[in-house]
Amino acid sequence: MQHNQSKRYASGFSLIELVTTILIVGILAVFVIPKLIPESSYSAYTLRNEFISELRQVQIKALNNSDRCYRITVDSDGYQLTTYSHNINAPFAGCVPAQLLRTDLKQTFNGGAYIELASNSSTSFSMDFDNLGRSTLACTGSCFVVVADESLTIAMESEGYIHGL
């Protein structure tokens, strides 16, 4: 009779074995698996929302400060905001930079991500906003393509509204 009881207990896992296995799987999940995922998994949604937010912020600054020009310069590494005094003697009503006032820190792209113009696929461009919130790119509809783990589009309407597609 004792022989049958010992066979029944030997057929399963002990509590210590189960806890040890769960611990090892947990450590692998936290430390090893993220290193196997490539860095190019930078979210296109994150970059798109970040860039839309930056464009809207610059647009609002241009609307509220007619004595300043705000320029966003984009290249393959990131984008940067520069503030200039506005040349009020310029022959047209747009933003005409006169004197450099401030340059913000460059926001860099991660994991091979970049932003390009939808019209010509250029990854290096600059744009200003006038005091009516319009861009100097003269772009309507799909203006920018954000490329990271996938491609997403940013649109600007003729009246200045900036949104993702």
UniProtKB/TrEMBL annotation:
<dbReference type="InterPro" id="IPR045584">
    <property type="entry name" value="Pilin-like"/>
</dbReference>
<dbReference type="Pfam" id="PF07963">
    <property type="entry name" value="N_methyl"/>
</dbReference>
<dbReference type="InterPro" id="IPR012902">
    <property type="entry name" value="N_methyl_site"/>
</dbReference>
<protein>
    <submittedName>
        <fullName>MSHA pilin protein MshC</fullName>
    </submittedName>
</protein>
<keyword id="KW-0812">Transmembrane</keyword>
<keyword id="KW-1133">Transmembrane helix</keyword>
<keyword id="KW-0472">Membrane</keyword>
<feature type="transmembrane region" description="Helical">
    <location>
        <begin position="12"/>
        <end position="33"/>
    </location>
</feature>
